[in-house]
């Protein structure tokens, strides 16, 4: 067995996001920051409103992090000491990519087309307000390529945050559907990280810990229980530390078309294929699946579907508006080259059969 582990993002966990962010800015002499946030409640959070009094702001990051908006954020960050990203995955993904763009030059499309980041990024402090993506502690930013209407993950050390301010109280304002979708995104990260050719003992321990927490506490979190929100927030952090090391699998790659073509929230889009792909993976990852099932307390497909139903997630393609005649097109929308972490080969034929089953 050979593996390595690297994650330079500093993690600060506790209910003091504003204080910790201000301390980090002062300790590192970051006197001119660009505060980046989303269009919804994040711009009205105390941490955002307070920082905006003394720092420039870029407000209204769109869902799914469009490439052109990443370019805009990078332009706004020119001459700044750092970026502070406050929001969910789309905000943090866009801000981290912009921070790398500032020091590496070029446009986002250059990197979506294969150019690599070679220089350290502008420091980016991430303050998550949802519990799911773990972008604040991962080496990935998922960006939408508007030219192709496709989502693609940029990866590399330049996309790590400078620091992650993990304040679970910022997730208390999530509406139930958002709590459910983001929680299922994290749950998908866990399973995909374990049943993965890059799986290692450290990532697996983090993933199993996260599975234990999220599977038990997500239903109560969706109902608004604050203690459950705290628990899931912590579980999501473990999930991020897991998939950061391994990447994701076809579950995520297939989900992008559901989101872009049918407007399905990312976590729900991932969950649609998750139980079925895990069941298929038993053929070549029996021991890994057994370890997952020992934590879930039963069959991985059955337990995953039960969790999905308990939080109101769709379990069939019909429920998200897919028509039978759309299935072939959906199978053609997958970037099969990027399905490189799966334990079974991912082909158009296999995906077509999968889509038929879950229709």
Report what the structure shows:
With 359 residues, the chain is an alpha/beta fold. It has two domains: 161 residues, Rossmann fold, CATH 3.40.50.1970; 184 residues, Dehydroquinate synthase-like, alpha domain, CATH 1.20.1090. Helix content is 50%, strand content 12%. The model has no long low-confidence stretch (mean pLDDT 96).
Can you tag this structure with a few keywords?
six-stranded parallel β-sheet; single chain; 2 domains; 8 strands; Rossmann fold; globular; 50% helix; two-stranded antiparallel ribbon; alpha/beta; 12% strand; Dehydroquinate synthase-like, alpha domain; 359 residues
Entry summary:
The protein is an alpha/beta fold. Helices cover 50% and strands 12% of the residues.
CATH architecture of the largest domain: Up-down Bundle
Instruction: Assign the CATH class of the largest domain.
Output: Mainly Alpha
CATH topology of the largest domain: Dehydroquinate synthase-like, alpha domain
Write the element-wise H/E pattern from the N-terminal end onward: EHEHEHEHHEEEEHHHHHHHHH
Major pleated sheet: 6 strands, parallel
**Count of discrete structural domains:** 2
How does the overall form come out from the CA principal axes? globular
CATH superfamily of the largest domain: Dehydroquinate synthase-like - alpha domain
The average pLDDT is 96
Order of strands, main sheet, comes to 1-8-5-4-2-3
Q: Determine Rg (CA atoms, Å).
A: 19 Å
> Based on helices, strands and strand pairing, what is the structural class?
alpha/beta
User: Share of helix among residues?
Assistant: 40-55%
Distance between the termini: 40 Å
As residue ranges, the low-confidence spans are none
